[in-house]
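ok trying again, last paste got cut off:
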Amino acid sequence: MPVTFPGYSPKGLTWLRQIVKNNDRDWFLARKDVFESEVQGATVALVEALNARLEKFASDYVADPKKALTRIYRDVRFSKDKSPYNTYLGARFSHLGRPKEACAGFWLQISAQGLELVGGSYMAATPQLARLRSRLATEHADFERLCRRKALRTAMGELQGEQLKRVPRGLPPEHPAADLLRHKQFY
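nice, full thing came through this time. structure:
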């Protein structure tokens, strides 16, 4: 039986719009039940539906829905913005449950602005980033050809991510893939 996602209810979408303006503990606690059933519950259903699709072509990325979801509570210890709650709910799909810094993966985010689905490497640890750059240094033509495909750009947009100002140490600055090699993130 295929897993379907019925969508977010009007009540859940209203909650997502309102958390932006009412990001405080009293407001949240009075509406926590709406968050849990209409936003968090719907996002778990969405993750389950995506898992059913991932099973067909990327089964190594199927995620436990409850573990994939991010927390609504923000870590405000080192932030100037002391808003206690995120204004979005996210889900992470990592390869075989590896930590996000160990491999590329998928990220899903629902907020008042809409739904965002991103794929790639966002916070690669130094060894993984070095391996990725090494591979790109030799196989950049294939990767660039893939990134130029109209279908991919239409569906996912252009390659994004933070970049260094110079090509990393150990790689020639005049390398034909210098623009790619400067990337710290690929999504």
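cool. The chain is about 45% helix and 10% strand. Strands lie at 88-94, 105-111, 114-120.
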